[in-house]
From TrEMBL:
Molecular-function GO term, any one: dihydrolipoyllysine-residue acetyltransferase activity
Keyword Zinc belongs to the record: no
Cellular component terms per the entry's GO annotation: chloroplast envelope; chloroplast thylakoid; pyruvate dehydrogenase complex
Alphabetically ordered keywords of this record: Acyltransferase, Lipoyl, Transferase, Transit peptide
Pro residues bias (residue ranges): 155-164
Region (Disordered): 134-179
Protein name: Dihydrolipoamide acetyltransferase component of pyruvate dehydrogenase complex
EC number: 2.3.1.-
Cofactor: (R)-lipoate
Top class in the EC scheme: transferase
Amino acid sequence: MATAPAPLSLSASTLPARLRSAAVPAGARGGQTRRGRMVVRAKIREIFMPALSSTMTEGKIVSWSAAEGDRVNKGDAVVVVESDKADMDVETFHDGIVAAVLVPAGESAPVGAPIALLAESEEEVPLALAKAQELANGQPQQAPPAPAEDAAATPSPPPSPAAAPAPVAAGTKGIASPQAKKLAKQHRVDLAKVTGTGPYGRITPEDVEAAAGIQPKPKPAAVAAASAPVAAPSAAAVPQAAVLPPVPGATVVPFTTMQAAVSKNMVESLAVPTFRVGYPIVTDKLDELYEKVKPKGVTMTVLLAKAAAMALAQHPVVNASCRDGKSFTYNSNINIAVAVAIDGGLITPVLQDADKLDIYLLSQNWKDLVKKARAKQLQPNDYSSGTFTLSNLGMFGVDRFDAILPPGQGAIMAVGASKPTVVADKDGFFSVKSKMLVNVTADHRTVYGADLAAFLQTFAKIIEDPESLTL
């Protein structure tokens, strides 16, 4: 494998010898006019920063798998990008030579921005370097002067995607992002018949969903904008917007991409009117069940997730959400997102259809999800499809805490530790039983107090008589 790329090099003298020797005079290629017409044969394509998730606005280059001067084939992984949730390989859609790396490892770029230039052959490399120089200087790529009568026949190439929406560039029409290709396969959508609305005509996941007849999900930003007017001052009043003076002797460490995404989501949550309900639950029988199934790889988190999913099946309003500020979105699936702390951030892998799978299959799925989460290899659907979130700090001895509602969901459950507690029965006799306290934070636009109380009663019955969890 090629060594990691050096910082961006834009001169032909920095190319490998085998590419320098192939350089041709500028006048011998696209910069020459012939009989008053511009002759442009070079095929230089841009590798864009892809949208690896629905919430991703920019990505950070972790490493380049291909260095400047390397020849790559369509489908080869050329770069590793850190999105707001995971590190993912990004493939190229064309054969060619990596002529110029525009965004070196360790730097970030917005979604849709060019991060490298791909030349079709060695002869196009000098032209790619010239284009890279123009992009680095913030100038749009322009053709050399041509006779006035042919000015209309030779339009200037489109401006940078960051400046204005660009038309479809040559060689990019019909190209789909990795997530769009995955969705197309799932929904059996022919990408050749889909019109891309992304940068330079690229097909986005939203384009595939539209072609499949799936109702698009509003983005969190759009939801916030459509919220009631009173919500706007709340978000605007967050002190995070103000830059505080530095503390003498302190060290400032910028957020990672994941930490920035967590911060953004937490700020967005402030626009949602929430309320909290706590409920004590006796866990003696659950603890006994856990001791029986623990040798088979079942964790307490999986048992709690399964119990929550079974309760949600009986109370679908708690599994619903409000996405536009004026309607309910009832989810047909019960997907339990579970908060997991990883190095440098927080992520919520999702147990899909948790109400339909047994605890043993759920445990295997959970083991795989945690492994991928710690390696930062989760796919977008692994962490962005949750309908209800579970956060368990009981293993740390925490007896109670409140959780912040994630954007786009109706409720989140915070589970504390199970501890010996003196309780009195209906006849006045005292005994010691294990009890845990769960606190649920819910969106008051869709979930009311009576709804949440009824859900917690059902959840408590399942926990206190957990045999149904093994069915």
